[in-house]
Every structure is written in structure tokens, then in C-alpha cells.
Amino acid sequence: MLETVRWKRKHMCEIAATAQRHVEFPGLSPEQRQTLALAGSLAKSVASGARVCSHDNVQMAVSLLCSACLPGFPGAPAPRCLGRRDWRTPCHLVARGILDECVE
Predict the structure, then answer these.
(1) Which end of the chain is less enclosed by CB atoms within 10 A, N or C?
(2) Global pTM?
(3) Which letter does DSSP use for residue 70 in this model?
(4) What residues have CB less than 8 Å from 25, skipping those under 6 apart?
């Protein structure tokens, strides 16, 4: 159980970093920018322990990241994701930019 919580927190750290990296992407719609900011904020608070590392919080952060990513990023290749909302497997956006160091 403790290992699962640690893994979820690490994944939330990865999502927070991904959202932070992409929130200032040029040409994003205001909705995408706001959704990325919400995903980053929620994921960061779960990773830091400020919010409970529950399945619902983790699922919400993943869903927010997916909904911001699915429309695509201007000038970038179309996302290869069909709307995954599975916190167990990082999406392509997260997988290609995972941080080596992630503070829990």
C-alpha cells in the first residue's frame, strides 16, 4: 500500500512538472492554459502531501492533463493519445519529458 502511494505521488510530481512546462506554450487557448494550471496545481499538492493521495485526486489530475492536451499544441505534432485517463501509465506528453529528479 505504501509503495502504491509513493508511486502515485511520483507520478503526480511528473504531471505537475509537465503541466508547468506546457502552460506557457505559445498559442494555447485560454481554456487549455487554465486546465493545465489546474492539473499542475492539483498534482503538485498531491505530490507534496498537501492533499490526500487518493485515487480520485490522482484521477482528476490525469483527466485535467488529458483534456488540456487532446486539442493539441499549436505547431506541435498531434497527440498520439486517444484520451487515456489511466493514472497507472503516463501519457506520451508526460513520458517524453519525465524529470530525473522528483521531490516527493
Answers:
(1) N
(2) 0.79
(3) T
(4) 73, 74, 76
